[in-house]
Design goal:
single chain; mainly alpha; 0% strand
Length: 206
Amino acid sequence: MQRSARPVERVPDNPTRHAPLKARTSRDRQRQDTFERVFEAALAEFRRVGVEKARVSDICHAAGVAKGTFFFHFATKDDVLLERQRRISEAMAGRIERELRHAGSASGFVEMLITIVLQEHEALGDPELVRQINLAIVRRAGSPMLGAQHTAFGTALVGQLRRLRRAGVLRKDIDPVQLADCLRLGFFGFLVNPQFPSESGAAGIK
């Protein structure tokens, strides 16, 4: 007797897989514009009087928004600093992926990495702001979202360290995630130093 073919079970399609990207509305653009104005006003006030003395009311006055608008976008002043660091992290990640993918030695890799980190932080033009940004990271040290694999910088760095391990530049028993965290801690120690940037530059980190 010929068996009847068993019907093939179809996996339901994900309705969001083929969904077109939602177009930004004028309200979305307005919200982003307000976010940027508050963000830039906060950074300007931090530079003017320091993070500790900066008042939310003065930031909102400079941005031309109501006081409550600040807290709609940022829970604390630290969150402004962390947003600035997120942008630095993305800039460093892009350079890591472009400039370090052909590094063939551990020493050359580290020297180029130090150059990237220093240049992107010095581009802020305010050593004290750099220090406050990294102190904010230290204060949020328990947050998993600031771990090596949850930031653009950390993800790019881990990826390149894995490449070096596959190429035999790093030993097979070295964990790229742990090594990335060690490197990041070393950078934090240098960037929170009141003497940053020192005349020694990269030599100071080494």
